[in-house]
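Model the whole thing, not chain by chain.
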Amino acid sequence: MKIKLFYFARLKETLKYSTEDLELPDESFTILKLKALLAKRGDVWGQMLMGKLKVRAAINHELVDDKALINDGDEVAFFPPVTGG
Amino acid sequence: MTVRVQTEDFDVGLEINQLRQSRKDIGAVVSFVGLVRDLNEGDEVSQLTLEHYPGMTEKSLSSIIDQAKARWNIFDALVVHRVGTLQPSDQIVLVVVSSAHRGDAFSACEFMMDYLKTEAPFWKKEANSKGEHWIEAKSADDMARDRWNIEK
């Protein structure tokens, strides 16, 4: 399956990625599994996605937790806890 | 119900007047304006840059208004949030709520701000004499939101 990924704020800055298209195996894929897969890229990827920092995720513009399932064509985003207002 | 994300400043008086004109049974209008402070955790702030997640931001703010509508008797609500680079004393956010009586408007306005601060995808980066850094989320903000699930 194909998904579109977005990164924001500190994650975008540190990973030096704002968006990418990703091909995932056609099996049930959770947010946690995706984070672990991206963390394997090493270095800052592991620190940012599986480290001590809190990371929040959204699928198709809805906040989700680590157990949420990703489907083909989904827009997935990773970002730090929000600080607006 | 209106949600706007913009770089430009807003005129609170103008926004309230527009909201008032929609009907004649409004008895209360409550507004909240958030500003950039010149001091944060002891450091002087020279500027603040706000980033957001286009698409999700609007959806999230609309959902916050819907939740407030489901909970209180409010007529109308407006949320304006600025993004981009702001200076101390600049306006960042505006929430306006109208209702027949003040109680509903007060509660809904506070509820919307508490949810906005913890769920709407905005991020602040602060610049001071030492450089730039991302603002950390505060647990006090999560607590402010969570109390709405207990009391009413």
